[in-house]
Amino acid sequence: MKAVIFDEALRYVPDQAEPEARPGWRRIRVTTAGICKTDLEIVKGYMGFRGILGHEFVGRIEAPDGRPGARVVGEINAACGVCDRCAQGLGRHCPKRSTLGIFNLDGCMAEVCVLPAANLVKVPDELPDDRAVLIEPLSAACEILEQHPLRGSERVIVLGDGKLGLLCAWVLSTAAAEVTLVGKHPEKLAQAGWRTLRTALADEPIAPGADLVVEATGSAAGLARAIELCRPRGAIALKSTVAAPHQLSLAPVVINEITLFGSRCGQFQDGLAWLARYPDAPLERLIAARYPIDQALEAFHQAAGTSLKVLLDIGG
Ligand SMILES: [Zn+2]
Ligand SMILES: [Zn+2]
């Protein structure tokens, strides 16, 4: 099958062996895959992953007779299903998990990928592939509300105008009284406008005292800024996985009794429910380009130069 792999280098291969579904798993015929920042990091060698890349996809379950079945998206963490964390519904934190295209499991930038049946979520017919393929980062934005439910009266600041920052701002703007997205790029902020969402440039004065600050800048400096902007007894959601160590004083966190929480993957059901509720959410604005899978190298090149999403068309 056609596949995009990373071994010593990023390569498109036309003749990769197809994966076998283990018991309880399914084969999926991938239609569209998204290139994520994580994929770009893997290609730089950061995570030590070797194999087929990709964890964001829409595809069709392959029926036992090989024909395409239901259109699905798939949660990326393949959990063991039997440990304590799995029993608590926290398969995303199963210590034995493998992760699609990231850790110990071949990914979805291929004509076929495999995942546990329990990971697959049916996509409603009315939801186009180009919206459904963004379900993984969208659900990661919804995760903030699962961890930190809002009452509706809150003032929220989202730091960072990349894809995840925009998605967090859009999701939170449907749950809080006031949301301000803060970024460094006027052209990205101009893309963000939806509902009541406000935007501000990072060097503009921003009133502190937010009830919730989401740190999605992708830089180590973002946390210090988040602490400055958070009110006493407020909360900070950390969305950036910054590899560099932070150097900052945590005294204000103690003095102001700030709740600081890390936030990563969400549940796809939450993302799909949100999309069904807000069909006018402007997700298409996040898509920069699409390429056929055999032009994956060009696609990765473009993805490295944009903060927007580049898609790979894989199957019909
Ligand atoms: Zn991703
Ligand atoms: Zn487990």
Secondary-structure blueprint:
Layout: E1 3-6, E2 10-13, E3 25-35, H1 37-43, E4 51-52, E5 56-62, E6 68-74, E7 77-78, H2 84-87, E8 98-100, E9 104-105, E10 112-116, E11 120-122, H3 129-132, H4 135-147, E12 155-159, H5 163-173, E13 178-183, H6 186-192, E14 198-201, E15 210-215, H7 221-229, E16 230-238, H8 251-255, E17 259-262, H9 268-277, E18 287-292, H10 296-304, E19 309-313
Parallel strand pairs: 8-9, 12-13, 12-15, 13-14, 15-16, 16-17, 18-19
Antiparallel strand pairs: 1-2, 1-4, 3-5, 3-10, 3-19, 5-6, 6-11, 7-8
The structure holds zinc ion (2 copies).
Notes on the structure:
The protein has 316 residues and is an alpha/beta fold. It has two domains: 153 residues, Medium-chain alcohol dehydrogenases, catalytic domain (Quinone Oxidoreductase, Chain A, domain 1, Alpha-Beta Complex), CATH 3.90.180.10; 125 residues, Rossmann fold (3-Layer(aba) Sandwich), CATH 3.40.50.720. It is 25% helix and 30% strand. The chain has ten helices and 19 strands. The strands form four sheets. Strands 3, 5, 6, 10, 11, 18 and 19 form a seven-stranded mixed beta sheet that branches. A six-stranded parallel beta sheet has the order 14-13-12-15-16-17, sandwiched between helices. Strands 2-1-4 form a three-stranded antiparallel beta sheet, with no helix packed on it. Helix 4 packs across helix 5. The radius of gyration is 20 Å and the shape is globular. The protein binds zinc ion (2 copies).
